[in-house]
Amino acid sequence: MQIKKRFIQAIEFVSKAHYPAKLQTEILRSIDIAPTNYYKMRAGTSASYPTLEHCYLLCTQYSISAEWLITGKGIMQYMDEKKIDVKTLLLAAIAALPGKK
């Protein structure tokens, strides 16, 4: 599964499972993505991908694992309250992608 699909999966998970009182549009705006762009991305009518900033905001605001988002390894969401250095995780996960040295 590619990053775009995992990003969409995480948004759906967050909006349905953990923040049902928040509208999906509120969640999208909180990570600085226009709802119309997201819906086009989800429908496959847009070639755009979530930016690194969108991924960072999703991970930090909703406890989504950066490693899972980038590589697909591990769990989607952290369940504890420990502090996570998401920037370091994102950089490490990107460096671990095939073809990166």
Would you kindly provide a brief summary of this structure?
The chain has 101 residues and is mainly alpha-helical.
* Number of helices, where a helix is a run of at least 4 consecutive DSSP H or I residues: 6
Please tally the β strands and state the result: 0
Number of self-contained structural domains: 1
Alpha-beta classification: mainly alpha
Under the CATH scheme, the architecture is Orthogonal Bundle
Radius of gyration, in angstroms, nearest whole number: 13 Å
How would you state the average pLDDT, rounded? 81
Morphology call = globular
What is the C-level CATH assignment?
Mainly Alpha
* Topology pattern, helix = H, strand = E: HHHHHH
Distance between the terminal alpha carbons, to the nearest Å? 21 Å
Q: Which stretches are low in confidence, meaning pLDDT under 50 for 5 or more residues running?
A: none
Let me know the largest β-sheet. Answer: none
How does this model look, in words?
- By secondary structure, the chain is mainly α.
- It has a single domain, classed as 434 Repressor (Amino-terminal Domain), CATH 1.10.260.
- The protein is built from six helices and no strands.
- The protein has helices at 3-18, 24-30, 35-43, 52-62, 66-71, 86-95.
